[in-house]
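N-myc-interactor, Gekko japonicus. Tokens?
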Amino acid sequence: MPNAEGEVPGTQEDETGNVTELEQWKKELAKAEKEKADLLLSKLAADEDRRKWEEELKNLRGIEDTLAKERKLAQENYQRNLNRQNDELRREIQFLKNKLAAKKAKCKELAQIYKLKRSISETNVTFTHLEKVENEETYNNICCFFDGSANIPFRLSRGEALITFEEESVAQELLQKSQHTVKLENADTVVRARPVELEMGITFQLHVKISQRKINVSNIPNLRIPDEWVRDKLELNFSKTKRGGGEVQDVTYDRRSQMALITFAQPGVANNIVKWAEYPFHTSEQTYIVTISPVVEKYLERFEMFSGIPKRTLLLTDIEDMAEDEENIQDMIAIHFQKPSNGGGEVEYIRYISEGTKVAYFETDMENVI
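Tokens:
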């Protein structure tokens, strides 16, 4: 009920409470609005950052793609250059291999042409003359020289024969006629006479100088004493005259090779020592056996090379295969070319080959080579 003043009891309080609650909600609403605005601003900032990062990522991916393309292109260029260089190197290696093979073949050919035999066959030695001693070196050494030459090989094939005449004129006349009819096994056979073209030949003069004052000593025991003491012991041993020794002028000793070079004061002593081949070497503890050898100096002079054609020897070719053995065919050929009526003459040598190949050797004779 309204009171005397016309107010409804409790209404004012309610209105005051409602106002207070409304104010409270307004504050909450303003706060919410503010938070919403802040969230929108944060979202806008986040969106801007995300856009920037996406743009940056896009740029980075573009750079990565560009780098990948450039890297791939560089690898392809590098591989092409590498393949080209490898091809060039392979061609150069092959060229060098071919060049080396050609050089080796040439060296082998030259080695065959200029090859010398080390061994010299035994021959009689004849005294020729005396020489006046002009200096001490001549007196201290035995000097000699040998004229040498290498036999020249010639390959003889099947159906061929070599024939050598005593007279050069006979061979040259038969060579000019070229074709000759020879009766073999009651059948006429036409053979050809050709010159014998030899390979390279050589002549040389071997000089040998043997010292009469120096000797080589080998197989010297490895003594545990200084080198100077070893030299003293060598000098003492080889100065004894019981086994042909004499006054020692100098001793050169090499421990690694176990060898020494001993020089005597007088010539002729070396000859007396060398003939023993082995010599006792006495030390304070025991006796050893050392090996003695002469000091020899060898060198070549007047080394000459030549090629030519023998003037008295012919090569007969186109000889047909016969049932007769080689010796009979050989005799028939020799008989034919011995007859003056066939333009022949005295045969000094003949060799016929019916099968395979054989090598004939020509001795060096400048007078009989064209």
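The two ends are 174 Å apart (CA to CA).
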